[in-house]
Design goal:
Blueprint: H1 3-6, E1 24-26, E2 36-39, H2 52-57, E3 62-65, E4 77-80, H3 84-95, E5 104-109, H4 114-127, E6 132-135, E7 140-142, E8 145-147, H5 156-169, E9 173-177, H6 180-184, E10 195-198, H7 206-209, H8 212-224, E11 231-235, E12 251-256, E13 263-270, E14 275-279, E15 282-286, H9 291-306, H10 311-318, E16 329-332, E17 338-342, H11 347-360, E18 366-370, H12 380-391, E19 394-397, H13 407-415, E20 425-428, H14 432-441, E21 448-452, E22 459-462, E23 465-468, H15 471-480
Parallel strand pairs: 1-2, 2-3, 3-4, 5-9, 5-10, 6-9, 10-11, 11-12, 12-13, 17-21, 18-19, 18-21, 19-20
Antiparallel strand pairs: 6-7, 7-8, 13-14, 14-15, 16-17, 22-23
Length: about 475
């Protein structure tokens, strides 16, 4: 594709030959090849401008940058832009034929519930008989073809290449998680969204955004860029829900489990393996547990109606949906011990899962195994431990993904959040497998062991190395031994 075609929609005052053919696009100099266009990003930890020379040495014939190098290499086109991250999104979309314009693209953002909501919408549309794509934390899908996922929201080149495959496969819909990082880093620039959903916003990612205000603004920026024909669906029960609608051109819609909204839900009956919901006056049994899942299912219901599907069909298919991998997945031992595996890795998510278990328990114990990731928001660590202690009978603090940090240093941060007057038994077991084993050993028939934090993940990252590790596998081995 010619430079002029790739830069359609990109503002630049630079003079360049628009007829130069570009063979490939990259923002990592190591992936540059003969005929590449290299986009120099001002990253969070690395400045791509320092690698312009390396990209040219590998064959790049065009460079998009925010600051033009002092020395220009003959034969290389330089395009200076105000925001190279924004430019990368637009260029990536152009490179792959703007695939999002050929899909009904709906994004979901929020601290908790993104994966469940996006995945259930993907499953809902496929149950309706349509081909669909999914971009999520757990996995990416091109209709029924599974593709590995490394980020909640991939980079623009990956996003557009996957969407191009979806279009080629005949998909009509695409549902994707939109993280605050991706919105702030312009990874969703150039995408044509038909709808956006907001779940909630709680304590997370302050290591990156620094302030809660900046975190909210990053989420809100996704709604700010929506077109007038799109829909913007927000949670009326979240105190920041209406903030998302303040500057969007999209049509405004609300949902709630507590007050009157455009779409309403009421929990009628709660069970460990199911919930009876009333959605806008119609009752439906679902295979989900927890009031937090009532919100997720309400969003799926509302979004399905906003996409034009008939209410009676939506309710029928809603009853057929099953929980997402690693989200409140239950396992039962031969002796009657119940284990729940959940991805809860924020104070609010831990609290929501435990409140659900509290509402279902009788005289049984709740034993919680929880940790916190390394190289991430340290301020949420004591809050997670506090939430676990307030709603559990026994808490086992352990490692999650320590990454480059010392596991015990992370655990010390968590121990600081244990209430001084707690009656909860608190243990610290650094090894996660041993922690799970210890928790199950303390459980009797009818007790519930919550293993929180990693959910679907099948690895543990320690000192930069990913080792195979699955909470579900560890539990299964213990239950079957």
């Amino acid at each position: 594709m010619k430079i002029g075609e790739l830069l359609n929609g990109v503002k630049s005052d630079s003079t360049f030959d628009s007829n130069v053919e570009i063979a490939s696009l990259c923002f990592d100099s190591r992936k540059a090849e003969q005929g590449s266009m290299f986009v120099a990003l001002c990253g969070y930890s690395v400045d791509g401008h320092n690698y312009i020379g390396a990209a040219i040495e590998r064959g790049a014939v065009a460079v998009v940058c925010q600051v033009e190098p002092v020395e220009r290499v003959p034969g290389v086109e330089y395009i200076v832009v105000a925001d190279s991250s924004l430019a990368l999104g637009v260029i990536s979309a152009n490179m792959f034929g703007n695939p999002s314009k050929h899909l009904k693209l709906v994004g979901v953002t929020g601290t908790n519930g993104k994966t469940t909501t996006a995945t259930l919408m993907y499953k809902m549309v496929r149950l309706m008989g349509y081909k669909a794509g999914l971009l999520s934390t757990v996995c990416n899908y091109i209709d029924d073809r599974r593709m590995p996922s490394t980020h909640t929201t991939p980079d623009p080149i990956t996003i557009n290449s996957l969407m191009a495959m979806m279009v080629e496969e005949g998909c009509e819909y695409c549902f994707m998680e939109v993280s605050s990082h991706s919105a702030h880093q312009q990874r969703i620039a150039g995408l044509d969204f038909d709808g956006a959903m907001f779940s909630n916003i709680t304590h997370d990612h302050l290591d990156y955004h620094k302030t809660f205000k900046s975190y909210i603004e990053a989420k809100k920026s996704f709604f700010d860029r929506l077109k007038g024909e799109a829909f913007a669906l927000t949670n009326l029960d979240d105190k920041n829900g209406m903030v998302m609608l303040q500057n969007t051109k999209a049509k405004h819609y609300t949902y709630s489990c507590k007050r009157m909204a455009d779409f309403n839900c009421k929990v009628i009956e709660r069970h460990l393996d199911s919930t009876l919901l009333e959605l806008d006056g119609a009752e439906v049994w679902t295979k989900f547990t927890g009031d937090f899942n009532a919100y997720n299912l309400l969003v799926v219901y509302a979004t399905s109606l906003l996409l034009g599907f008939p209410k009676d069909i939506v309710l029928e298919k809603l009853s057929m949906l099953v929980p997402v991998e690693g989200r409140f997945e239950t396992m039962v031992s031969k002796s009657g011990v119940v284990a729940v595996v959940d991805y809860a890795h924020t104070p609010d998510a831990v609290e929501n899962v435990l409140k659900t278990l509290q509402s279902l328990k009788r005289d049984n114990k709740i034993i919680t195994v929880v940790g916190a990731g390394g190289d991430r928001d340290r301020t949420k660590r004591p809050e997670m431990a506090k939430a676990a202690c307030e709603l559990s009978d026994i808490v086992v603090l352990t490692s999650d993904n320590p990454r480059s940090e010392e596991p015990m240093a992370i655990l010390n941060d968590m121990v600081a959040g244990v209430p001084a007057n707690t009656t909860t038994v608190v243990k610290v077991v650094v090894d996660r497998a041993e922690a799970i084993k210890s928790a199950i050993a303390m459980a009797s028939s009818g007790d519930v062991v919550l293993v929180a934090g990693k959910g679907h993940e099948d690895y543990q990252e320690i000192k930069g190395v990913k080792y195979h590790f699955s909470d579900k596998e560890v539990i299964g081995e213990i239950f079957n031994s």
